[in-house]
Design goal:
heterodimer; A: mainly alpha; globular; B: 514 residues; alpha+beta; 4 domains; seven-stranded antiparallel beta sheet; binds protoporphyrin IX containing FE
Chain lengths: 303, 514
């Protein structure tokens, strides 16, 4: 049995990722410009905002196409799915976030978190290329399973939905925060005007909830698929391996979030915070747990 | 946004001072939504330390190392059960309370839901405009609006009652059904995990090519039974390891020496007289035998060695498993020769593809046997096997032995290439490196609860999906003097409530036009 790794192609893939980062940077700056224009007191400046937003969206689409080609080439270079180590998981995962976001632009209310999404994608790609990068490698036999495709695809999708919801929760929290309301700082004042452009808080809350429930269903499936795979690969469906522990913690936090949405006194701000805590746990699971905790899921590919 | 299930979240009543009053009050607190929420969050927090400290169940060696490195702190943590978080008293307490709360919550809810299923949708409200979504339509020819609304809503899957000029409809009962199925399934998962874990077992066995494993307690190198496990539950099949193959990557620069595939070719028999069945075990593909799954967990080399005494009588012949020490399979093995006048033992290193470092030390540079070498240090003296205490076959206790070859003994260690025979020191005889075999580390385990856990988990997934995605709403239509009105009320999240109202109104109008 043999595999063909194509290092030349993985280098080309990397170039595409860098190119995507450059265009995401442009998109991010343009979205930021759009927001600041919206916040302007001058009518003329505000009037140009829509045009700017359209340019930013086009930039983001171009960036996502470059990004997508980079992901695809990486997969071809490794002759397998491109999500077997942290670098690959980062580039594929962030691509899915952007793709879902671009589709979700059909929902008008979501546009205003574009600055956050493009900035976040840039951050992920930056750390992927700077910290997590590894040359293409074959899969260790434990990872050679179609469950890698199923389990990880769904995990990436779930993360993308939670990610967008988290952005909405941040908007919610800022919009309802007392310190923002009271602050006399100029910067906060600008932010307040930007936030005023956002949909009403209850609309943001509802939108975040809808992204979170899809995320939760997908995450539940991730958990079950992971257990089925663990039964095949590690001889037990559940063993409280560090990564299993964190998958469970995240699931439990979001279950708490769903309850909070039906508990008097816990809707609104508290549940927004819970959703944010859940997303921080996801980021923690992906970074700190992968890099520093001992366990069976040592798949970062870093030494 | 979501309509609060206030039934389960009632105000805290001042308790009466009787025992019954207190118990009722405690029960009500325990089964309130707020308690469920807090217990869930508490469970999430309580699970964290298990990922920070090594756990006895997942990483027993890590616990030992932790004790060695932190002799002061470790016993304190141990007293707090921080090395057994998921079986600890405090973790158990949280999830048991959570499940009591769960039962106390869903059982009454089931009754409520059952009655709701039998109750017709409630009568139309007085003021439609007060509802979250409503529309008033002016239309002259409105006489048959109630009939048509009834027909339309029925077609849309609503349960409908007509009440004179008004129609009440409700849909999405499945939402609550899904919710109940989900919560009950969680109880099923917990139950299956508990019972299945008790009936399960997990054992390990190292098998060299050519050897046969018989499934009984004595054949295992190590064995961990669940609480309810009984020896009789082992089905006495046998399995022979015919051949073990590994593919290493030689082609791709960045990847040289990386294992690509492991294959164990085995032949199994259910009874000594039944026909042997050939199968292949790979890393993600265990062999499924009755009451046992056989997994491949590790592998390595087992050089076959023959030792003869001075007269040429064979005093040892066999292939001991050597433990790999590196990714290039530099491997360490121990050979004990007790059945001679002078007992001796050998600590041996095997290098599949040998190379010499600049320090002069040997190393292996590739995991496959391209240029194999076996080196041996020999020790003479008491092997310590007579005490009756089981000894680790991978370690040689040299405390009562004298090194007679290798190290500082003054005699060079032995070096053997494949097929070579060399003299042992002190006239102990000769040793021959006959053959290179491989061994497979096998994990034999079984958990009869697994399939039930999966079944309940999938049921829970189906339940929660239904419960989160099926909208539950009430719709009312009423004929007015100059047209009709439509109103709707969501129970739970409903992204399309307004749209539904508009569509129903449009539909009722459209039909009118014909
Ligand atoms: C192991 C513990 C529990 C877990 C993992 C859990 C999980 C969940 C999840 C994921 C949901 C949202 C999906 C749905 O609506 O079906 C939910 C909803 C709900 N849970 Fe639980 N739950 C637990 C215990 C409880 C307890 C103890 C109660 C009662 C006090 C409870 C009452 C409810 C209610 C009323 C809803 C519906 C909320 C709504 O209307 O949106 N749950 N639960």
């Amino acid at each position: 049995m043999g595999i063909a790794l194509n290092e030349g192609l993985s280098q080309i893939s990397l170039i595409f990722i860098y190119a995507a980062m450059a265009v995401y940077t442009a998109a991010f700056l343009t979205f930021a410009n759009h927001l600041s224009r919206l916040a302007s007191e001058k009518k003329k400046i505000r009037g140009e905002a829509t045009k700017i937003e359209r340019i930013a969206i086009i930039l983001m689409i171009i960036a996502s196409l470059l990004h997508g080609v980079g992901v695809l080439l990486r997969g071809i270079a490794a002759s397998r799915v491109p999500w077997a180590n942290m670098y690959e998981f980062s580039i594929t995962g962030s691509f899915v976030v952007v793709a879902i976001f671009l589709f979700a632009l059909a929902i008008k209310d979501i546009r205003l978190i574009a600055t956050f999404v493009s900035g976040f994608t840039l951050l992920i790609l930056g750390s992927a290329t700077a910290i997590f990068y590894v040359e293409v490698k074959s899969l260790m036999p434990a990872l050679q399973s179609y469950w890698l495709v199923i389990h990880v695809t769904v995990a990436i999708l779930a993360t993308a939905f939670f990610n967008i919801a988290a952005a909405l929760s941040i908007a919610y929290i800022l919009k309802t925060a007392a310190w923002v309301e009271k602050s006399k700082l100029k910067l906060v004042g600008t932010m307040k005007r930007i936030l005023a452009m956002f949909p009403a808080v209850d609309k943001i809350e509802k939108l975040a909830y809808r992204f979170n429930i899809i995320g939760f269903i997908l995450w539940s499936f991730t958990l079950i698929a992971g257990a089925i795979w663990a039964e095949r690969a590690w001889h037990r469906y559940w063993g409280w391996d560090t990564k299993e522990v964190w998958t469970f913690i995240i699931w439990t936090i979001y279950a708490g979030y769903l309850h909070a949405n039906a508990t008097r006194g816990w809707t609104g701000k508290r549940s927004a915070w819970l959703a944010l805590v859940g997303f921080v746990a996801i980021l923690f699971n992906f970074t700190v747990v992968n890099l520093f905790f001992k366990g069976l899921h040592v798949y970062s590919g870093l030494k | 946004m979501v309509i609060s299930s206030s039934r389960f979240d009632g105000d805290i009543a001042t308790p009466e001072l009787s025992l019954a009053g207190w118990s009722r009050w405690i029960w009500r607190q325990l089964t309130s939504m707020r308690t469920a929420l807090l217990l869930l969050l508490l469970l999430a927090i309580a699970a964290v330390p298990g990922s920070v400290f090594p756990q006895r169940s997942a990483d027993p060696n890590g616990v030992t190392t932790y004790f060695d490195n932190n002799p002061q702190l470790a016993p304190v943590l141990d007293a707090m059960q921080l090395f057994d978080v998921y079986t600890s008293a405090w973790f158990s307490a949280i999830y048991i309370l959570l499940f009591i709360s769960l039962i106390g919550c869903v059982v009454p809810r089931t009754g409520v839901h059952y009655r709701a299923l039998l109750t017709p949708p409630p009568a139309a409200p007085k003021l439609f405009a007060r509802m979250p979504a409503s529309l008033s339509v002016k239309f002259a020819k409105n006489t048959d609006v109630p009939e048509r609304a009834e027909k339309l809503l029925r077609k849309m899957g609503y349960r409908v009652v007509r009440n004179g000029k008004a129609v009440s409809a409700e849909r999405g009962y499945l939402r609550e059904t899904g919710n109940l199925v989900f919560h009950f399934s969680l109880i099923g998962v917990l139950f299956a995990v508990g019972v299945g874990g008790g009936l399960s077992f997990s054992g390990q066995r190292v098998l060299v090519e050519g050897e046969t494993f018989v499934n009984n307690l004595a054949s295992y190198d190590s064995f961990a039974p669940g609480t309810f496990f009984h020896e009789n539950m082992l089905v006495p099949f046998s399995m022979n390891l015919k051949k073990f193959e590994v593919d290493f990557d030689l082609k791709n620069q960045t990847n040289v020496g990386t294992p690509l595939d492991f294959r164990a070719y085995v032949s199994s028999q259910l009874t000594p007289t039944s026909k042997p069945v050939d199968s292949l075990i790979r890393v993600n593909e265990p062999l499924e035998m009755p009451g046992a799954n056989i997994y491949l967990t590790g592998n390595g080399y087992a050089p076959h060695i023959t030792i003869r005494d001075k007269e040429g009588n064979v005093i040892f012949a066999g292939a001991n498993a050597f433990l790999p020490q590196s990714t290039t399979y530099t491997s360490l093995g121990v050979i004990k020769v007790p059945d001679t006048a002078r007992q001796f033992g050998i600590i041996a290193f095997f290098y599949p593809t040998v190379d010499t470092l600049s320090t002069g030390a040997l190393t292996s540079i590739y995991p496959a046997p391209i240029d194999p070498l076996l080196t041996m240090n020999v020790y003479e003296g008491d092997l310590g096997l007579d005490g009756g205490v089981p000894k680790n076959v991978y370690a040689l206790d040299t405390s009562n032995m004298k090194q007679i070859a290798g190290g500082k003994s003054g005699v060079k260690g032995l070096r053997l290439t494949l097929g070579e025979t060399v003299e042992l020191p002190n006239g102990l005889g000769t040793v021959t490196f006959d053959d290179i075999r491989r061994f497979a580390s096998l994990d034999v385990s079984y958990n009869p609860g697994g399939i039930w856990v999966l079944a309940f988990a999938l049921l829970a997934l189906a339940g929660v999906t239904t419960s989160l995605l099926v909208p539950r709403r009430r719709v009312w239509v009423r004929q007015t003097t100059d047209g009709f009105e439509v109103a709707a009320l969501a129970r739970g999240d409903d992204p399309i409530l307004e749209k539904v109202v508009t569509e129903i109104a449009a539909e009722l109008k459209k039909k009118e036009k014909k």
